[in-house]
Amino acid sequence: MHASVSGPIRAAVEEIESSWGWFVALGISLAVLGVVCIVGDVMATLATVFAFGWLLLIGAVIALVQTFRTHTSRGLFLSLLNVVLRGFTGYALLRYPLAGEYGLTLLLASFFIVGGMFRAVGAGILQFPQWGWATASGVVSVILGVMLLVQLPLMSLWFIGFAIGVDFIFDGTSLVALGTALRSGAKDRKAEIA
User: What pTM value is reported for the model?
Assistant: First the structure.
């Protein structure tokens, strides 16, 4: 760390550096959880659908309370429509989890296709530095989306759990790398002082 960094910032950096072990522990935990999600991808997918359903139901109750607390007739219909849509969707996901898996996977496939097309075409038009990587990423997203659509409903059983597992593994790995970098930064700073 440079000597030009002032007191409060230096103290904050030192505090973050001193907690490097928590970053490593959280990263390892997320990576292990990611492996569990990949191994039990069908159960992880079901758990995700149930969690999403409960979150929608809880959100509907909170939105209903907020709607009646505001006491405004303006927007009352839209607020109540929001409550009904959230509540119905949450109930449907809990009542029909296999259909929920299918619907969420279909939504993800659409997201991959549309998002990938926009990314690839936008990168090709703008041609910013290293635009080829963004174009390639968009093309891969489109291919993944098409693969999901072609292999529905079979992929809906395991894809969400697999995707969450992969995300947890990458997040965990990045946290372990951050913790390791913080530890080496703290060692370097102590060596500079000594």
Answer: 0.67
